[in-house]
Amino acid sequence: MKKHLFPLFLLLLGANAHAQQDFFALVGKDTSSIVFSDFRAIDATNGTSGEKIFTADSPVKIFSQARNASVTEDKNNYNNSQAITMATLAYDSSNNNLVYMPMFSSNIYVLNQKTKEITLVENNVARVTSCDINSHMTRMTTGYDGNIYAINNAGTQFLQISKKGSQYVVNDLGIIKDDASNGKNSFTAIETGFGGDMIADAENNFYVFATSGNVFKISTKELKAKFVGKISGIPENYSVNGSAVNANGKVVIASAKGASLYEVDLNTLQAKQIEGEQNLHIYDLASKYFVNNRATSGSVFANLDIYPTRVDEKFININLNDKSIKGKIKMNVFDLSGKNVMNQDFSVKDGSLHQQVYLKNLVNGAYLVNITDESGKILLNKKILVVE
């Protein structure tokens, strides 16, 4: 199911209808232990719930990828699509699917939001056992490259879940180790680094938000976790169980203990409470957004930007609000070899432009978008990634 892409200025106004389509929560029941309730859309701007997409009691239709057939699962064990021990969720915006794993299971499930059908991805890569807390999958997100990534409690498994044609493929990328500078704030220690959730940035790095409130940056090249700092502005006993990036590039965190949602600035790790429902027990959050995805790096004007930079529907939006820019601006798109593959002119009226651009004929890959004024002065250079 394709979604409408709204102009950027509507995103900045926090259009509720759009927020309901691309921000999701894994919600539990009001109990002292983990008990899965449902997946639901959530408005990250005001912390209120939307449609319940899939619940612990929903009728299920499951297709096994390994058996190439429909299957019926035993709901009395941990290996089923409605297991009570659920703590991971990611949103695959390219296919409008929700991807998740029961915490005590190696099974991966892909829920089609439109048909409500579930694909079961069995795999021998994830080594998860119910009695080993280190092995439990507790963090999951979509990477900037479009693949799904998951990390277990101790960082001993870093999974990549990708789709090759009609099949899902699981790879183990290796063991994530502590950076030498981490000291007592260890990524692999239960008191400081276990649990929580993860998000991705536009450089395909990952940030893990531990339940303790500690934040670690994961370098995918070095497979090291570097301690960034501890979130401030949340209650002392706040358990950080979910994290996802909102449309404004800020991180929203949530707790399984029925506390409020908070918006966190990743640069300062300062949290600000979001007004809304106070009794949500959220085990995980998921969205289509990325940290630094809207940064104006390469722009000499703070009020000129393009969005999104990970383009999965062939459209980008140009947003300009600067009265010093007049006349026309020109957009050129270059591939990585430096070849100009697209150009287009736009008229600026009263220093304002909100334009949706169709990137026709651009194949999957990375490109540089260059915007200049009438004199040829560069106003913005920004990398985009086109994916199907």
TrEMBL record:
Protein name (record): T9SS type A sorting domain-containing protein
The organism's place on the tree of life at top rank: Bacteria
Keywords: Signal
Keyword Signal annotated: yes
Coiled-coil residue spans: none
Organism: Chryseobacterium oryctis
Range of residues in the leader sequence: 1-19
One Pfam assignment: Por_Secre_tail
Keyword field contains ATP-binding: no
Residue span(s) of domain Secretion system C-terminal sorting: 306-384
